[in-house]
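Section 4.2 – Deliverable D4.2 (structural model, holo form)

The reporting period included a commitment to supply a predicted holo structure for the target in complex with zinc ion. Inputs used:
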Amino acid sequence: MSIKKEEMLKVLTTHPEYKDEYTEEISKNIDKLLIPINKIREMWGKPLIVTSGWRPKSYNKAIGGAKNSLHCLGMAVDFADPDGSFDAFLVELDKQGKLKELGLWLENPDATVGWTHLDIKHRGDRKSNVFKP
Ligand SMILES: [Zn+2]
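Output (structure tokens):
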């Protein structure tokens, strides 16, 4: 039950008017992101619901998303995490150095209550791959 590219591109189904903003570069970034994400998915062993994958720039602006959001580049994904257990699982993986190994970065769970944000933007060699927004 891996996470599929279509799940990252749901916005194209609900808002097909943004399809011109979907580029080759974004497509490649999503492919790159899905490799470590699906390794995490396998370790987690339970279903994950994508609440936000790729966001076209103008759509992101319309919904009041963060400027320069990595979602607009196809480099970030949000999952539903109603009880915080997925965030807690990822914090444990980070302590074991697994997020660094996979090149994944987790937004600090204190800032994402109810959901989880993961991305592949390299922020340098740090002790922890949990970052503050
Ligand atoms: Zn996000």
